[in-house]
Structure formats: C-alpha cells, structure tokens
Amino acid sequence: MMRDTILTLMNEAAETTGAELQPDINHDTVLLESGLDSLGFAILVARLEEELGYDPFSIMDEPVYPRTFGEFVAIYERFAPK
C-alpha cells in the first residue's frame, strides 16, 4: 500500500536527518507540520524514486505542491505506472 511505503520512508528520512516526526501522521496532516524539513523531504522523494522507480513530480505537466500527507500520497498513487 502506497501510504505505508511513504510512511516507512518518511521515518527513515527523519532518522537520517535527526528529525522527529509528528506521532500520528494521517490524511490531513499538514506536511510542513509533519516534522520533516526541506532536506528530509528531498531525501524522502529520492528514496521514493529508488523504491518505486518513478518521480511523479518530474512526470507532471504542471507542478503541484501537496499541502497534506493525503495529497502527497494521492500524487504518488495517481502517477504510479500502470
């Protein structure tokens, strides 16, 4: 499940950067309040590309900046290879 993969890799990114994630990340969690900083998100997106084999942000025609965790997951689900 995409949500679980992203949460696992978010935890890895937090551990790598020494960040502390918000304890109950859910669909409505605002990404800027999740505990990851910009370096943490860069690591997360790079790890997701390694794990999933694609980067939805480089595939999109118009850039979209997700505000919540749910929007972030939805982007990865929408651009997943069929």
From TrEMBL:
Residues 1-80 form the Carrier domain. InterPro entries: ACP-like_sf, PP-bd_ACP. It comes from the Bacteria. Gene3D superfamilies: ACP-like. Transmembrane segments: none annotated. This is Phosphopantetheine attachment site.
